[in-house]
């Protein structure tokens, strides 16, 4: 009921009467009043006027189940939210829920992760109060070999979601990092549980730097946040809801064709490595090449100095610009 009341307050430009809310939810006036008091405690400014009702004057950067659910307008992506003030990693929570049969599209969100994860066992910084850590649980009916493409589907959803919210052009550093002004604002980690020919579940974790102003020494040269780049504080729940909308749209295009052909053009429009010289950090030996774009299965197409073309699979590889991170 809390998320629904919030949604009604947000959608209404004028007062909503207490009686209207009582009738809508079939509850007492005291129950409605209690929800309003809870919302005020969480930081919402709600005006209550006798004979008129309630009106929402301001929402702060609240991260909660009710706030996120009040903003999500999708059919299934993020319609159901599991929220933690603190957890080890939202990917871990999503995987545990995946084992227990939790439904497709459930979104796990934390204000802070104590053991945020990056690719290849690396860490992800996700401090309290200013970052987004979220993981969506999916049960796609596609062959397991195709699931890694979902990382690129999410990368496009984040880049486009950020443009929708802030009007800035976020880029994608192949395959899964979102950058603004050549610095990283988001990392994505996909994990899955499969049988030989069947996917039990896939979880896609997304860490977004939203309102951080400083970063630990190890990453301060390569990391940035939406606030640092735009100069404005950004409400995290709005970013989450918008990314979910974009994700649902691109996911449906992806599962229909079981490849990226439907969204490849949009992905390449965001790809910062496109038509650039790159350094491919292959565990078998780093080398330089010229990146052309991606193919329909998400590999990066590069041309080597001798003119041969190669398609590189994301698994173990990172890409850098020749002179820096991008
Ligand atoms: P990269 O090309 O950046 O190495 P990757 O895909 O191999 O990308 P990820 O798994 O996306 O790496 O991210 C893990 C790395 O990101 C960490 O090793 C660290 O260097 C960096 N990192 C950790 N936390 C953050 C953060 N909040 N913002 C930006 N970068 C971070």
Please sum up the structure shown.
With about 325 residues, the protein is of the alpha+beta class.
Helices and strands, with pairings:
Layout: H1 2-11, H2 18-25, H3 29-41, E1 45-49, E2 53-58, H4 65-71, E3 81-87, H5 90-99, E4 107-113, E5 131-138, H6 149-166, E6 171-173, E7 177-180, E8 183-194, E9 199-209, H7 226-230, H8 236-257, H9 264-270, E10 276-281, E11 287-294, E12 300-303, E13 309-312, E14 318-321
Parallel strand pairs: 3-4
Antiparallel strand pairs: 1-2, 4-5, 5-9, 6-7, 7-8, 8-9, 10-11, 10-14, 11-12, 12-13
Bound molecules: adenosine-5'-triphosphate.
Domain BPL/LPL catalytic: 65-255
Pfam families: BPL_C, BPL_LplA_LipB, HTH_11
EC number: 6.3.4.15
Give me some keywords for this one:
binds adenosine-5'-triphosphate; seven-stranded mixed β-sheet; five-stranded antiparallel β-sheet; 9 helices; Arc Repressor Mutant, subunit A; 326 residues; alpha+beta; single chain; BirA Bifunctional Protein, domain 2
Structure explained in plain terms:
- Its EC number is 6.3.4.15.
- It catalyses: biotin + L-lysyl-[protein] + ATP = N(6)-biotinyl-L-lysyl-[protein] + AMP + diphosphate + H(+).
- Residues 18-37 bind DNA.
- With 326 residues, the protein is α+β, with helices and mostly antiparallel strands.
- It has three domains: 2-58, Winged helix-like DNA-binding domain superfamily/Winged helix DNA-binding domain (Arc Repressor Mutant, subunit A); 65-270, BirA Bifunctional Protein, domain 2, CATH 3.30.930.10; 276-319, Roll (SH3 type barrels), CATH 2.30.30.100.
- The chain has nine helices and 14 strands.
- The protein has helices at 2-11, 18-25, 29-41, 65-71, 90-99, 149-166, 226-230, 236-257, 264-270, and strands spanning 45-49, 53-58, 81-87, 107-113, 131-138, 171-173, 177-180, 183-194, 199-209, 276-281, 287-294, 300-303, 309-312, 318-321.
- A seven-stranded mixed beta sheet has the order 3-4-5-9-8-7-6, sandwiched between helices. It has a five-stranded antiparallel beta sheet with strand order 13-12-11-10-14, with no helix packed on it. Strands 1-2 form a two-stranded antiparallel sheet.
- Strand 12 and strand 13 form a beta hairpin.
- Helix 2 packs across helix 3 and helix 4 packs across helix 8 (236-257).
- It is elongated.
- The model has no long low-confidence stretch (mean pLDDT 95).
- Bound molecules: adenosine-5'-triphosphate (ATP).
- Adenosine-5'-triphosphate (ATP) binds at residues 118-119, 122-125, 176-177, 184, 187, 189, 207, 209, 219, 223, 318.
């Amino acid at each position: 009921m809390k998320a629904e009341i919030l949604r009604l307050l947000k959608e209404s430009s004028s007062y909503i009467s207490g009686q209207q809310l009582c009738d809508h939810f079939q509850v007492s006036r005291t129950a409605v009043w209690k929800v309003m008091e809870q919302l005020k405690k969480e930081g919402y400014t709600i005006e209550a006027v006798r004979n008129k009702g309630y009106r929402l004057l301001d929402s702060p950067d609240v991260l909660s189940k009710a706030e996120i659910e009040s903003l999500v307008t999708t059919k299934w992506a993020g319609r159901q939210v599991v929220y933690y003030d603190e957890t080890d990693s939202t990917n871990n929570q999503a995987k545990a829920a995946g084992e227990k049969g939790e439904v497709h599209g459930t979104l796990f969100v934390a204000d802070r992760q104590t053991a945020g994860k990056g690719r290849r066992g690396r860490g992800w910084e996700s401090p309290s109060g200013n970052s987004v850590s979220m993981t969506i649980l999916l049960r796609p009916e596609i062959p397991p070999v195709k699931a890694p493409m979902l990382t690129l589907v999410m990368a496009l959803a984040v880049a486009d979601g950020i443009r929708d919210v802030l009007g800035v052009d976020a880029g994608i550093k192949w395959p899964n990092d979102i950058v603004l002004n050549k610095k990283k604002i988001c990392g994505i980690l996909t994990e899955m549980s499969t049988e030989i020919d069947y996917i039990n579940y896939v979880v896609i974790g997304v860490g977004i730097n939203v309102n951080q102003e400083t970063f630990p020494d190890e990453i301060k040269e390569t990391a940035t946040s939406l606030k640092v780049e735009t100069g404005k504080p950004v409400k995290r729940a709005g970013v989450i809801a918008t990314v979910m909308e974009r994700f649902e749209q691109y996911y449906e295009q992806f599962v229909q064709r079981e490849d990226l052909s439907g969204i490849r053009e949009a992905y390449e429009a965001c790809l910062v490595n496109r038509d650039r010289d790159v350094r491919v950090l292959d565990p078998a030996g780093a080398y330089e090449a010229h990146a052309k774009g991606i193919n329909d299965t998400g590999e990066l197409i590069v041309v080597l100095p001798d003119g041969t073309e190669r398609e590189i699979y994301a698994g173990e590889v990172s890409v850098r610009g020749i002179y820096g991170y991008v």
